[in-house]
Amino acid sequence: MNYSQFLNMIPEATLMAILIIVFIADFASSRKSERRWFNPLVCLLMLVQVVVSVVPQEPTSAFGGMYVTTSAVNVMKAILAAGTLIVLIQGRKWLSRPDTCFKEGEFYMLVISTLLGMNMMMSSGHFLMFYLGLEMASVPMACLVALDKYRHNSAEGAAKFILTATFSSGVMLYGISFLYGAAGTLYFDDVAAVFMARQNLTMIIMGMVFFFSGLGFKISLVPFHFWTADTYQGAPTTVTGYLSVVSKGAAAFTLMAILMKVFAPITEYWTHVLYVLVVLTITVGNLFAIRQKDLKRFMAFSSISQAGYIMLAVIGNSSLGVAALSYYVLVYVVANLAVFAVIGVVEENNGGTTDMDSYNGLYSTNPKLSLLMTFALFSLAGIPPFAGMFSKFFVFMAAAQQGSPLTYFVVFIALVNTVVSLYYYLLIVKAMYIKKSDAPLPTFKSDANTKLALAICTAGILLFGVCSFFYDWIECAA
Protein backbone atom coordinates (compact mmCIF):
# COMPACT_ATOMS: atom_id res chain seq x y z
CA MET A 1 0.00 0.00 0.00
CA ASN A 2 1.19 3.51 -0.80
CA TYR A 3 1.21 5.23 2.61
CA SER A 4 1.82 8.62 1.00
CA GLN A 5 -1.93 8.69 0.32
CA PHE A 6 -2.41 9.71 3.95
CA LEU A 7 -0.94 13.08 2.96
CA ASN A 8 -4.14 13.67 1.00
CA MET A 9 -6.08 13.38 4.27
CA ILE A 10 -4.54 16.36 6.06
CA PRO A 11 -7.52 17.31 8.33
CA GLU A 12 -7.97 13.69 9.39
CA ALA A 13 -4.23 13.18 9.93
CA THR A 14 -4.13 16.33 12.07
CA LEU A 15 -7.05 15.08 14.16
CA MET A 16 -5.29 11.75 14.70
CA ALA A 17 -2.18 13.61 15.87
CA ILE A 18 -4.30 15.72 18.26
CA LEU A 19 -5.94 12.56 19.59
CA ILE A 20 -2.55 10.98 20.33
CA ILE A 21 -1.25 14.18 22.01
CA VAL A 22 -4.36 14.42 24.21
CA PHE A 23 -4.07 10.76 25.16
CA ILE A 24 -0.42 11.16 26.20
CA ALA A 25 -1.19 14.39 28.10
CA ASP A 26 -4.06 12.73 29.95
CA PHE A 27 -1.89 9.73 30.81
CA ALA A 28 1.05 11.83 31.97
CA SER A 29 -0.84 14.30 34.17
CA SER A 30 -2.36 12.95 37.37
CA ARG A 31 -2.44 15.77 39.92
CA LYS A 32 -5.05 18.52 39.70
CA SER A 33 -2.36 21.20 39.55
CA GLU A 34 -0.95 19.57 36.41
CA ARG A 35 -4.32 19.79 34.62
CA ARG A 36 -4.75 23.55 34.68
CA TRP A 37 -3.12 23.74 31.26
CA PHE A 38 -5.09 20.75 29.87
CA ASN A 39 -8.06 22.68 28.51
CA PRO A 40 -5.93 25.52 27.01
CA LEU A 41 -3.72 22.90 25.34
CA VAL A 42 -6.68 21.09 23.76
CA CYS A 43 -8.26 24.39 22.65
CA LEU A 44 -4.96 25.46 21.08
CA LEU A 45 -4.70 22.14 19.22
CA MET A 46 -8.28 22.49 17.99
CA LEU A 47 -7.50 26.03 16.81
CA VAL A 48 -4.67 24.51 14.77
CA GLN A 49 -7.22 22.06 13.35
CA VAL A 50 -9.47 24.97 12.32
CA VAL A 51 -6.56 26.69 10.57
CA VAL A 52 -5.56 23.46 8.80
CA SER A 53 -9.14 22.98 7.58
CA VAL A 54 -9.45 26.58 6.38
CA VAL A 55 -6.28 26.45 4.29
CA PRO A 56 -7.33 25.91 0.64
CA GLN A 57 -6.69 22.38 -0.59
CA GLU A 58 -7.00 20.98 -4.09
CA PRO A 59 -9.69 18.31 -4.60
CA THR A 60 -8.00 14.99 -3.88
CA SER A 61 -8.81 11.31 -3.46
CA ALA A 62 -7.14 8.37 -1.75
CA PHE A 63 -7.38 4.61 -1.48
CA GLY A 64 -8.91 4.02 -4.86
CA GLY A 65 -11.59 6.69 -4.50
CA MET A 66 -12.92 5.57 -1.11
CA TYR A 67 -11.78 8.91 0.31
CA VAL A 68 -12.68 12.01 -1.72
CA THR A 69 -12.47 15.62 -0.65
CA THR A 70 -13.46 18.90 -2.30
CA SER A 71 -13.34 22.58 -1.40
CA ALA A 72 -16.96 22.47 -0.16
CA VAL A 73 -16.15 19.51 2.12
CA ASN A 74 -13.12 21.33 3.53
CA VAL A 75 -15.25 24.38 4.30
CA MET A 76 -17.72 22.24 6.24
CA LYS A 77 -14.85 20.56 8.11
CA ALA A 78 -13.57 24.01 9.10
CA ILE A 79 -17.05 25.06 10.32
CA LEU A 80 -17.46 21.90 12.41
CA ALA A 81 -13.94 22.22 13.84
CA ALA A 82 -14.72 25.82 14.84
CA GLY A 83 -17.95 24.67 16.49
CA THR A 84 -16.01 22.00 18.37
CA LEU A 85 -13.50 24.62 19.53
CA ILE A 86 -16.31 26.74 21.00
CA VAL A 87 -17.73 23.68 22.77
CA LEU A 88 -14.32 22.89 24.29
CA ILE A 89 -13.91 26.48 25.47
CA GLN A 90 -17.30 26.68 27.18
CA GLY A 91 -16.98 23.18 28.66
CA ARG A 92 -14.07 24.01 30.97
CA LYS A 93 -16.28 25.14 33.89
CA TRP A 94 -18.33 21.95 33.74
CA LEU A 95 -15.20 19.80 33.45
CA SER A 96 -13.70 21.43 36.56
CA ARG A 97 -16.47 20.08 38.79
CA PRO A 98 -15.32 17.50 41.37
CA ASP A 99 -17.58 14.80 39.90
CA THR A 100 -16.39 15.33 36.30
CA CYS A 101 -12.78 16.56 36.52
CA PHE A 102 -11.39 13.02 36.43
CA LYS A 103 -13.25 12.45 33.12
CA GLU A 104 -11.73 15.49 31.39
CA GLY A 105 -9.29 13.51 29.25
CA GLU A 106 -11.98 11.04 28.20
CA PHE A 107 -14.27 13.91 27.21
CA TYR A 108 -11.66 15.47 24.93
CA MET A 109 -10.77 12.14 23.31
CA LEU A 110 -14.42 11.26 22.70
CA VAL A 111 -15.13 14.68 21.15
CA ILE A 112 -12.10 14.45 18.85
CA SER A 113 -13.05 10.88 17.89
CA THR A 114 -16.57 11.95 16.90
CA LEU A 115 -15.19 14.84 14.84
CA LEU A 116 -12.79 12.44 13.10
CA GLY A 117 -15.69 10.13 12.25
CA MET A 118 -17.71 13.05 10.86
CA ASN A 119 -14.80 14.13 8.69
CA MET A 120 -14.44 10.60 7.28
CA MET A 121 -18.18 10.46 6.70
CA MET A 122 -18.23 13.73 4.74
CA SER A 123 -15.18 12.76 2.65
CA SER A 124 -16.40 9.27 1.79
CA GLY A 125 -16.63 8.17 -1.83
CA HIS A 126 -17.78 4.67 -0.95
CA PHE A 127 -20.76 3.48 1.09
CA LEU A 128 -18.58 1.30 3.32
CA MET A 129 -16.30 4.26 4.15
CA PHE A 130 -19.40 6.35 4.83
CA TYR A 131 -20.80 3.74 7.21
CA LEU A 132 -17.52 3.39 9.10
CA GLY A 133 -17.30 7.17 9.51
CA LEU A 134 -20.89 7.28 10.73
CA GLU A 135 -20.22 4.65 13.40
CA MET A 136 -16.95 6.34 14.39
CA ALA A 137 -19.05 9.41 15.17
CA SER A 138 -22.08 7.67 16.74
CA VAL A 139 -20.46 5.32 19.26
CA PRO A 140 -18.30 7.95 21.04
CA MET A 141 -21.28 10.30 20.98
CA ALA A 142 -23.30 7.80 23.04
CA CYS A 143 -20.45 7.76 25.59
CA LEU A 144 -20.52 11.57 25.70
CA VAL A 145 -24.27 11.59 26.38
CA ALA A 146 -23.74 9.15 29.30
CA LEU A 147 -20.78 11.05 30.76
CA ASP A 148 -22.91 12.31 33.69
CA LYS A 149 -24.52 8.92 34.25
CA TYR A 150 -25.13 9.53 37.98
CA ARG A 151 -26.75 12.94 37.44
CA HIS A 152 -30.22 13.69 36.09
CA ASN A 153 -31.25 11.44 33.19
CA SER A 154 -27.91 11.06 31.45
CA ALA A 155 -27.89 7.24 31.44
CA GLU A 156 -31.46 7.11 30.17
CA GLY A 157 -30.71 9.60 27.39
CA ALA A 158 -27.63 7.62 26.37
CA ALA A 159 -29.60 4.35 26.31
CA LYS A 160 -32.23 5.87 24.04
CA PHE A 161 -29.55 7.36 21.82
CA ILE A 162 -27.57 4.15 21.39
CA LEU A 163 -30.69 2.03 20.82
CA THR A 164 -31.96 4.45 18.19
CA ALA A 165 -28.51 4.72 16.60
CA THR A 166 -28.23 0.93 16.45
CA PHE A 167 -31.65 0.55 14.88
CA SER A 168 -31.04 3.32 12.35
CA SER A 169 -27.66 1.83 11.43
CA GLY A 170 -29.33 -1.52 10.78
CA VAL A 171 -31.96 0.10 8.59
CA MET A 172 -29.26 1.99 6.70
CA LEU A 173 -27.19 -1.16 6.13
CA TYR A 174 -30.29 -2.89 4.83
CA GLY A 175 -30.76 -0.06 2.33
CA ILE A 176 -27.09 -0.18 1.32
CA SER A 177 -27.46 -3.92 0.64
CA PHE A 178 -30.31 -3.13 -1.77
CA LEU A 179 -28.12 -0.58 -3.53
CA TYR A 180 -25.28 -3.08 -3.80
CA GLY A 181 -27.66 -5.69 -5.19
CA ALA A 182 -28.90 -3.23 -7.81
CA ALA A 183 -25.51 -1.78 -8.81
CA GLY A 184 -22.94 -4.46 -7.93
CA THR A 185 -20.63 -1.84 -6.41
CA LEU A 186 -20.55 0.59 -3.49
CA TYR A 187 -18.47 3.40 -5.05
CA PHE A 188 -20.59 6.53 -5.32
CA ASP A 189 -19.63 7.35 -8.92
CA ASP A 190 -20.10 3.77 -10.14
CA VAL A 191 -23.46 3.44 -8.40
CA ALA A 192 -24.65 6.70 -9.98
CA ALA A 193 -23.56 5.45 -13.43
CA VAL A 194 -25.61 2.28 -12.97
CA PHE A 195 -28.61 4.27 -11.75
CA MET A 196 -28.38 6.40 -14.89
CA ALA A 197 -29.37 3.33 -16.94
CA ARG A 198 -32.53 2.98 -14.78
CA GLN A 199 -32.12 -0.75 -14.36
CA ASN A 200 -33.48 -2.50 -11.23
CA LEU A 201 -35.38 0.69 -10.43
CA THR A 202 -37.59 -0.92 -7.76
CA MET A 203 -34.57 -2.19 -5.82
CA ILE A 204 -32.87 1.19 -6.17
CA ILE A 205 -35.89 3.03 -4.75
CA MET A 206 -36.19 0.55 -1.87
CA GLY A 207 -32.50 1.01 -1.06
CA MET A 208 -32.84 4.79 -1.21
CA VAL A 209 -35.84 4.76 1.16
CA PHE A 210 -34.08 2.63 3.78
CA PHE A 211 -30.86 4.61 3.46
CA PHE A 212 -32.74 7.90 3.77
CA SER A 213 -34.62 6.61 6.81
CA GLY A 214 -31.41 5.56 8.55
CA LEU A 215 -29.77 8.94 8.05
CA GLY A 216 -33.02 10.70 8.98
CA PHE A 217 -32.53 9.43 12.54
CA LYS A 218 -29.13 11.13 12.73
CA ILE A 219 -30.53 14.48 11.56
CA SER A 220 -33.71 14.20 13.72
CA LEU A 221 -36.09 14.55 10.80
CA VAL A 222 -39.75 13.84 11.57
CA PRO A 223 -40.87 11.03 12.03
CA PHE A 224 -37.38 9.83 13.09
CA HIS A 225 -37.05 12.36 15.91
CA PHE A 226 -38.44 10.63 19.00
CA TRP A 227 -35.07 10.14 20.69
CA THR A 228 -34.06 13.78 20.45
CA ALA A 229 -35.84 15.45 23.38
CA ASP A 230 -34.94 12.80 25.98
CA THR A 231 -31.33 12.63 24.83
CA TYR A 232 -30.91 16.42 24.81
CA GLN A 233 -32.45 16.68 28.28
CA GLY A 234 -30.39 13.87 29.78
CA ALA A 235 -27.00 14.72 28.27
CA PRO A 236 -24.69 17.27 29.94
CA THR A 237 -25.46 20.73 28.58
CA THR A 238 -22.06 21.04 26.89
CA VAL A 239 -22.60 17.71 25.13
CA THR A 240 -26.14 18.72 24.15
CA GLY A 241 -24.79 21.82 22.44
CA TYR A 242 -22.20 19.74 20.59
CA LEU A 243 -24.79 17.16 19.54
CA SER A 244 -27.26 19.79 18.34
CA VAL A 245 -24.93 21.59 15.92
CA VAL A 246 -21.82 19.64 14.97
CA SER A 247 -23.39 16.20 14.59
CA LYS A 248 -26.46 17.57 12.82
CA GLY A 249 -24.42 19.70 10.42
CA ALA A 250 -22.17 16.79 9.40
CA ALA A 251 -25.11 14.44 8.81
CA ALA A 252 -27.10 17.02 6.80
CA PHE A 253 -24.12 17.87 4.59
CA THR A 254 -23.37 14.18 3.97
CA LEU A 255 -26.98 13.43 3.06
CA MET A 256 -27.00 16.30 0.59
CA ALA A 257 -23.72 15.16 -0.98
CA ILE A 258 -24.93 11.57 -1.42
CA LEU A 259 -28.29 12.62 -2.83
CA MET A 260 -26.58 14.90 -5.36
CA LYS A 261 -23.80 12.42 -6.25
CA VAL A 262 -25.46 9.02 -6.12
CA PHE A 263 -29.19 9.57 -6.46
CA ALA A 264 -29.07 12.41 -8.99
CA PRO A 265 -30.47 10.16 -11.79
CA ILE A 266 -33.66 9.59 -9.77
CA THR A 267 -34.09 13.12 -8.44
CA GLU A 268 -37.85 13.12 -9.08
CA TYR A 269 -38.33 10.39 -6.46
CA TRP A 270 -36.37 11.75 -3.51
CA THR A 271 -37.37 15.40 -3.95
CA HIS A 272 -41.04 14.59 -3.33
CA VAL A 273 -40.12 12.59 -0.24
CA LEU A 274 -38.02 15.52 0.92
CA TYR A 275 -40.92 17.95 0.44
CA VAL A 276 -43.05 15.95 2.87
CA LEU A 277 -40.26 15.48 5.42
CA VAL A 278 -39.30 19.17 5.40
CA VAL A 279 -42.88 20.34 5.99
CA LEU A 280 -43.44 17.75 8.73
CA THR A 281 -40.12 18.43 10.44
CA ILE A 282 -40.50 22.21 10.57
CA THR A 283 -44.16 22.12 11.61
CA VAL A 284 -43.98 19.35 14.22
CA GLY A 285 -40.78 20.77 15.72
CA ASN A 286 -42.37 24.20 16.11
CA LEU A 287 -45.67 22.96 17.55
CA PHE A 288 -44.01 20.72 20.14
CA ALA A 289 -41.51 23.43 21.12
CA ILE A 290 -44.39 25.68 22.21
CA ARG A 291 -45.49 23.09 24.80
CA GLN A 292 -42.11 22.65 26.51
CA LYS A 293 -41.30 23.92 29.99
CA ASP A 294 -37.77 22.53 30.21
CA LEU A 295 -35.36 24.66 28.21
CA LYS A 296 -33.20 21.76 26.99
CA ARG A 297 -36.28 19.91 25.69
CA PHE A 298 -37.39 23.22 24.18
CA MET A 299 -34.09 23.52 22.33
CA ALA A 300 -34.40 19.88 21.22
CA PHE A 301 -37.61 20.59 19.33
CA SER A 302 -36.15 23.87 18.11
CA SER A 303 -33.24 21.88 16.63
CA ILE A 304 -35.71 19.51 14.95
CA SER A 305 -37.35 22.50 13.30
CA GLN A 306 -33.95 23.90 12.33
CA ALA A 307 -33.10 20.54 10.71
CA GLY A 308 -36.10 21.05 8.46
CA TYR A 309 -34.80 24.46 7.39
CA ILE A 310 -31.36 22.97 6.73
CA MET A 311 -32.90 20.31 4.48
CA LEU A 312 -34.66 23.04 2.48
CA ALA A 313 -31.27 23.74 0.92
CA VAL A 314 -31.09 20.12 -0.26
CA ILE A 315 -34.23 20.68 -2.33
CA GLY A 316 -32.26 23.20 -4.39
CA ASN A 317 -30.02 20.35 -5.61
CA SER A 318 -27.38 22.79 -6.88
CA SER A 319 -24.17 24.55 -5.91
CA LEU A 320 -26.36 27.33 -4.47
CA GLY A 321 -27.97 24.71 -2.24
CA VAL A 322 -24.56 23.50 -1.04
CA ALA A 323 -23.50 27.07 -0.23
CA ALA A 324 -26.82 27.82 1.51
CA LEU A 325 -26.63 24.67 3.65
CA SER A 326 -23.01 25.34 4.69
CA TYR A 327 -23.75 28.97 5.51
CA TYR A 328 -26.86 27.99 7.48
CA VAL A 329 -24.82 25.52 9.54
CA LEU A 330 -22.17 28.20 10.18
CA VAL A 331 -24.76 30.65 11.54
CA TYR A 332 -26.63 27.91 13.40
CA VAL A 333 -23.42 26.84 15.17
CA VAL A 334 -22.76 30.25 16.75
CA ALA A 335 -26.41 31.01 17.59
CA ASN A 336 -27.23 27.62 19.11
CA LEU A 337 -23.98 27.35 21.06
CA ALA A 338 -24.60 30.84 22.49
CA VAL A 339 -27.97 29.66 23.80
CA PHE A 340 -26.45 26.53 25.34
CA ALA A 341 -23.64 28.57 26.90
CA VAL A 342 -26.25 30.70 28.71
CA ILE A 343 -28.24 27.58 29.67
CA GLY A 344 -25.07 26.07 31.13
CA VAL A 345 -24.30 29.18 33.19
CA VAL A 346 -27.84 29.45 34.55
CA GLU A 347 -27.93 25.72 35.25
CA GLU A 348 -24.68 25.97 37.21
CA ASN A 349 -26.09 28.77 39.38
CA ASN A 350 -29.58 27.34 39.74
CA GLY A 351 -28.97 23.99 41.35
CA GLY A 352 -28.72 22.09 38.07
CA THR A 353 -32.27 22.79 36.86
CA THR A 354 -33.14 23.97 33.36
CA ASP A 355 -36.78 24.89 33.94
CA MET A 356 -37.96 27.83 31.84
CA ASP A 357 -39.51 29.55 34.89
CA SER A 358 -35.98 29.98 36.25
CA TYR A 359 -35.46 32.68 33.62
CA ASN A 360 -38.29 34.86 34.96
CA GLY A 361 -36.84 38.27 35.75
CA LEU A 362 -33.33 37.30 34.63
CA TYR A 363 -32.79 40.71 33.02
CA SER A 364 -33.18 42.48 36.37
CA THR A 365 -30.27 40.54 37.91
CA ASN A 366 -28.13 39.55 34.88
CA PRO A 367 -28.81 42.04 32.06
CA LYS A 368 -25.74 41.23 29.94
CA LEU A 369 -26.47 37.52 29.91
CA SER A 370 -30.11 38.19 29.02
CA LEU A 371 -29.07 40.47 26.15
CA LEU A 372 -26.73 37.86 24.65
CA MET A 373 -29.43 35.21 24.99
CA THR A 374 -31.85 37.52 23.17
CA PHE A 375 -29.40 38.05 20.30
CA ALA A 376 -28.98 34.30 19.89
CA LEU A 377 -32.72 33.59 20.00
CA PHE A 378 -33.46 36.37 17.50
CA SER A 379 -30.84 34.90 15.15
CA LEU A 380 -32.42 31.44 15.43
CA ALA A 381 -35.81 33.01 14.68
CA GLY A 382 -34.44 34.81 11.61
CA ILE A 383 -35.00 38.39 12.75
CA PRO A 384 -32.94 41.07 10.94
CA PRO A 385 -30.24 42.29 11.18
CA PHE A 386 -28.90 39.15 12.84
CA ALA A 387 -27.14 36.47 10.82
CA GLY A 388 -30.03 34.00 11.11
CA MET A 389 -32.15 36.15 8.81
CA PHE A 390 -29.58 35.95 6.02
CA SER A 391 -29.07 32.20 6.43
CA LYS A 392 -32.82 31.58 6.15
CA PHE A 393 -33.02 33.87 3.12
CA PHE A 394 -30.33 31.92 1.25
CA VAL A 395 -31.96 28.59 2.15
CA PHE A 396 -35.33 29.81 0.86
CA MET A 397 -33.69 31.15 -2.29
CA ALA A 398 -31.90 27.84 -2.93
CA ALA A 399 -35.13 25.87 -2.54
CA ALA A 400 -37.21 28.26 -4.67
CA GLN A 401 -34.65 27.91 -7.46
CA GLN A 402 -36.44 24.70 -8.48
CA GLY A 403 -39.28 26.87 -9.77
CA SER A 404 -42.09 24.32 -9.42
CA PRO A 405 -45.43 25.21 -7.76
CA LEU A 406 -44.88 22.47 -5.18
CA THR A 407 -41.52 23.95 -4.22
CA TYR A 408 -43.09 27.38 -3.78
CA PHE A 409 -45.73 25.81 -1.53
CA VAL A 410 -43.07 24.17 0.66
CA VAL A 411 -41.17 27.47 0.93
CA PHE A 412 -44.43 29.22 1.86
CA ILE A 413 -45.10 26.71 4.65
CA ALA A 414 -41.55 27.25 5.90
CA LEU A 415 -42.10 31.02 5.91
CA VAL A 416 -45.32 30.64 7.91
CA ASN A 417 -43.49 28.43 10.39
CA THR A 418 -40.89 31.16 10.81
CA VAL A 419 -43.64 33.27 12.41
CA VAL A 420 -44.54 30.36 14.72
CA SER A 421 -40.90 29.94 15.73
CA LEU A 422 -40.68 33.66 16.48
CA TYR A 423 -43.57 33.23 18.92
CA TYR A 424 -41.97 30.49 20.99
CA TYR A 425 -38.52 32.09 20.99
CA LEU A 426 -40.18 35.25 22.30
CA LEU A 427 -41.59 33.22 25.20
CA ILE A 428 -38.07 33.03 26.63
CA VAL A 429 -37.46 36.73 25.95
CA LYS A 430 -40.76 37.51 27.70
CA ALA A 431 -39.68 35.45 30.71
CA MET A 432 -36.37 37.29 30.97
CA TYR A 433 -37.64 40.85 30.46
CA ILE A 434 -41.34 41.00 31.39
CA LYS A 435 -42.29 38.18 33.76
CA LYS A 436 -41.63 38.86 37.42
CA SER A 437 -40.34 36.35 39.92
CA ASP A 438 -40.57 36.38 43.71
CA ALA A 439 -37.15 34.78 43.89
CA PRO A 440 -35.20 35.62 40.72
CA LEU A 441 -31.75 34.22 40.16
CA PRO A 442 -29.09 36.23 41.99
CA THR A 443 -26.52 38.28 40.14
CA PHE A 444 -23.56 36.10 39.24
CA LYS A 445 -20.42 36.30 37.15
CA SER A 446 -19.54 33.87 34.39
CA ASP A 447 -16.11 32.30 34.24
CA ALA A 448 -13.55 33.54 31.71
CA ASN A 449 -14.03 30.61 29.32
CA THR A 450 -17.80 31.10 29.13
CA LYS A 451 -17.30 34.82 28.49
CA LEU A 452 -14.87 34.00 25.67
CA ALA A 453 -17.25 31.47 24.12
CA LEU A 454 -20.16 33.94 24.33
CA ALA A 455 -18.01 36.69 22.82
CA ILE A 456 -17.09 34.49 19.84
CA CYS A 457 -20.71 33.41 19.31
CA THR A 458 -22.08 36.95 19.63
CA ALA A 459 -19.50 38.26 17.16
CA GLY A 460 -20.60 35.56 14.72
CA ILE A 461 -24.29 36.40 15.21
CA LEU A 462 -23.64 40.08 14.50
CA LEU A 463 -21.00 39.80 11.75
CA PHE A 464 -21.75 36.69 9.68
CA GLY A 465 -24.82 38.37 8.18
CA VAL A 466 -23.52 41.86 7.46
CA CYS A 467 -20.03 40.82 6.32
CA SER A 468 -20.42 39.21 2.91
CA PHE A 469 -16.92 37.71 3.08
CA PHE A 470 -18.12 34.61 4.92
CA TYR A 471 -20.85 33.75 2.43
CA ASP A 472 -18.57 34.57 -0.51
CA TRP A 473 -15.94 32.16 0.89
CA ILE A 474 -18.50 29.38 1.19
CA GLU A 475 -20.08 30.09 -2.20
CA CYS A 476 -16.67 30.09 -3.90
CA ALA A 477 -15.93 26.64 -2.45
CA ALA A 478 -19.35 25.32 -3.44
Give keywords:
20 helices, globular, two-stranded antiparallel sheet, 478 residues
Descriptive report:
The protein is mainly alpha-helical and 478 residues long. It has 20 helices and 2 strands. A hairpin with a 4-residue loop joins strand 1 (60-62) and strand 2 (67-69). Helix 14 (319-348) runs antiparallel to helix 16 (367-381) and helix 14 (319-348) crosses helix 20. The longest helix is centred in the middle third of the chain and has 30 residues, at 154-183. It is globular, with a radius of gyration of 22 Å. The relative contact order is 0.09. The model has no long low-confidence stretch (mean pLDDT 84).
Q: Mean pLDDT, rounded to whole units?
A: 84
The proportion of strand residues reads under 5%
What is the topology, as strand order, of the major beta sheet? 1-2
Assign an overall shape: globular
Share of helix, binned: over 70%
**N-to-C series of helices and strands:** HHEEHHHHHHHHHHHHHHHHHH
The main β sheet shows up as: 2 strands, antiparallel
| Uncertain spans | none
Structural class: mainly alpha
- Work out the helix count: 20
Distance between the termini: 32 Å
Radius of gyration: 22 Å
Number of strands: 2
